[in-house]
Amino acid sequence: MKLDILVLAAHPDDAELGCSGTILSHIEKGYKVGIVDFTQGELGTRGSAELRIIESDNSSKILGLSIRENLMFRDGFFENDEAHQLKLIEIIRKYQPDIVLANTPNDRHPDHGKGAKLATDSCFLAGLPKIKTYLPDGTLQPHWRPKNLFHYIQDMDHTPDFVVDITKFWSKKVDSIKAFKSQFYDPESNETPSYISSLDFFNFLEGRARNMGHPAGFTFGEGFLKSRNFGINDLFSVI
């Protein structure tokens, strides 16, 4: 299946937190969107790897994704090395996305920065025909390089290069996040409190989305960082 947009995420729930409104808005426009999670988030304070997979499936149904996969990399310890790059190159060539969305290069969790670099390097390398990868039946995969890669803003503050209007999709974005019930605010939970499990964290998410959207004239927005400069030939295409 060819995807229009492939979202890469170090952990299950990264995509929901960072860009699920953008995912929803583009699926409504008819684009095919999928998520590939690198890890199961098994080092998370609350829940378990097995529960994260169930929660990911629930969130995927809310979002209406075309595909979702988990590469089972080691949470906290995956690397941007040849073995991990080759696995991700296979995924990029498998789905042939035109646009890739990936983690923030500089963020609170070290896996986000590693994930961003792994995504950036793998997107470039996937376009090199001399790097050989194969389908399970032994067929050589064609090389493929996405047209662009953007980084969704996560925990730390960054000035976005552009903002997507997610006002219409805010409520459904919240639903997709709450699908990860073990991770976020639940007054009935007896698990150890964590950085993201308080009601204040949800208030932060709403404040962040309002703050991103307001300068662009939106009620809620999601901000992105570009990975390279890109050009236009019509000034009216940006208004």
Description:
This protein is of the alpha/beta class and 239 residues long. It is 35% helix and 16% strand. It has a seven-stranded mixed beta sheet, sandwiched between helices. Strand 1, helix 1 (14-28) and strand 2 (33-39) form a beta-alpha-beta unit.
Task: Show unreliable segments.
Answer: none
What is the general shape? globular
Output the number of helix runs: 6
Task: Spell the H/E element sequence.
Answer: EHEHEHEHEEHHE
End-to-end separation: 33 Å
Strand order of the largest sheet: 3-2-1-4-5-7-6
Question: What is the gyration radius calculated from CA atoms?
Answer: 17 Å
Mean pLDDT, as a whole number? 95
Q: Which sheet architecture does the biggest sheet show?
A: 7 strands, mixed
Strand content: 15-25%
The portion of residues assigned to helices is 25-40%
Please give the number of β-strands: 7
Structural class: alpha/beta
Give structural attributes:
239 residues, 7 strands, seven-stranded mixed β-sheet, alpha/beta
Give a brief description:
This protein has 239 residues and is an alpha/beta fold. The chain is built from six helices and seven strands. The protein has a seven-stranded mixed sheet with strand order 3-2-1-4-5-7-6, sandwiched between helices.
